[in-house]
Amino acid sequence: MKALLMLENGMTFEGAGFGDEHDVLCEVVFNSAMCGYTELLTDPSYAGQGVVMTYPLIGNYGICYDDTESTKPWLRAFIVRSVSGAASNFRCDVDLNTFLKQNHVPGIQGVDTRTITKVLRESGTMRGMIAYGDQIDPAAMKKQIDAFVLESCVPLVSSGEQKVYGDGPVKIALADYGVKSNIIRSLVRRGCTVKCFPYDASFEDMMSFSPDGIMLSNGPGDPKECTKAISELKKVYAHGVPTFAICLGHQLMALSQGFDTYKLKYGHRGINHPVKDLSTNRVYITSQNHGFVVNGDTINPSVADVRFISMNDGSIEGLNYKNGKVFSVQYHPEASPGPLDTGFLFDQFLKLIGGGQI
Prior knowledge:
Elements: E1 2-7, E2 12-19, E3 24-31, H1 37-41, E4 49-53, E5 57-58, E6 77-79, E7 82-83, H2 96-102, E8 106-109, H3 113-123, E9 126-132, H4 138-147, H5 154-157, E10 163-165, E11 170-175, H6 181-188, E12 192-197, H7 203-207, E13 213-216, H8 227-239, E14 243-246, H9 248-256, E15 261-277, E16 282-294, E17 304-310, E18 316-321, E19 326-329, H10 344-353
Parallel strand pairs: 3-4, 4-6, 5-7, 6-8, 11-12, 11-13, 13-14, 14-19
Antiparallel strand pairs: 1-2, 1-9, 2-8, 3-9, 10-12, 15-16, 15-17, 17-18, 18-19
Helix pairs in contact: 8-9
């Protein structure tokens, strides 16, 4: 079916639909990864977004359910240059087109993703809309885009109930703002029992589990919208329980200590982002997916030290807090771009729980 993508600046891109073809409004972003689309599709941090893939051919190895990061896709639309006509991999469970149809995610292919990406890099992330059919009204699309406001997606992606994973001796309370499954797996593999709490759980709720440590997960959107979580994290910090925060959790902890965050022009989304550890001068290859960062100019040096910075734009990628019990990173150490470059951070977390130093 004919499909049309329109950006909020009025630019249009004509292509063909695939997946579940229904009109959709979204925030349009791009991802520079050459592979890993299964993980991307099921990453809750993409909730509300239409993702443009810069790599031109997507779907060639299908979907493997063992690689998913949650129970379903969370993005609103998938925008690609070309969808592979065959899914050729011995681990494939279903082809990409069928997977998107089953999960009601619309897609558009045949568009100039190179041009779209250059526009987003120059003008910044934009709202957009994809419409389908032979009678598409661009003027009506533009009105809908102008009226579109992306609301907070954290309540949508966070589990509404408390769940327990693993049965190890170390107890971790995980604040679920849209957690990726591999964060949980990374802890369980290291001998942890992980109990997930909803995004709006109180500090008292989490401490009722008598945790040895607290994990703050990734998640979508603007961290400043998570006012309840920010308030509760002030208590976490004051209590001094060992805490490791990733992505949105990193931003929320920073906000709880009076630091500020801001929105990047077009975000960091890909699996080859170089990050420098200032404590060792070593550079790691990281997987990233975020549109907001901590403002380095607002960090109180008596509260936290900058540990990691982006080698691309110098933005803050990780903090060590002076209380010796909290550390955080903006990137995803549970992912495998390096492939295991920064998995040691989970080991540092367990060492901290055992009485060691960050």
